[in-house]
Amino acid sequence: MTVSIHYVDPKTKAPLRKDDTAYYSETGSVYPIVNQIPRFVDSSQNYTQSFGLQWNTFSKTQIDGTDQKQSETRFFATTNWKPEELAGKNILEAGSGAGRFTRVILEKTSAHLWSFDYSEAVEANWQNNADIAGGRLHLFQASIYQIPLPEVTFDKVFCFGVLQHTPRSVEFCNKT
After folding, report:
1. pTM, two decimal places
2. For the segment 146-157, what is each residue's pLDDT rounded down to a tens digit?
3. Distance between the two ends of the chain, CA-based, in angstroms?
């Protein structure tokens, strides 16, 4: 059974109030909705500008086509999940890029997907996947360090190709 999930303030975890243009916290923070995507970070002020540019410029590069199933094969081989086991489940995708694995979940399962990226790659993901979601895609822009969702909410979580790009992993690599 799918549990209803609502965004919370990424800093305080308090509930947010919503209108057509933004989410609002009780402490005065405003999180705008831009191009139908809630934004919980200011991407013009973070280190991911080049990632957003890359994924929006080459938005279809890793998306499976009708004769190619690389992303689908990798996803199910890596997670060892079965599509039928994900029916109605809430899944969190941390670091979506242009949405190659977002598409796999939406096309091959009936799961509800909460997907985010720190960069403006969410724009490419929305363009690639919003039409196939049937309301099951909840896409937002946020930091992996401050996810605007309540704790212990998801049946499954996956994160591919993200951690090596975070500042703390870069900092760690520079120290060794």
Report:
1. 0.81
2. 999 998 789 999
3. 46
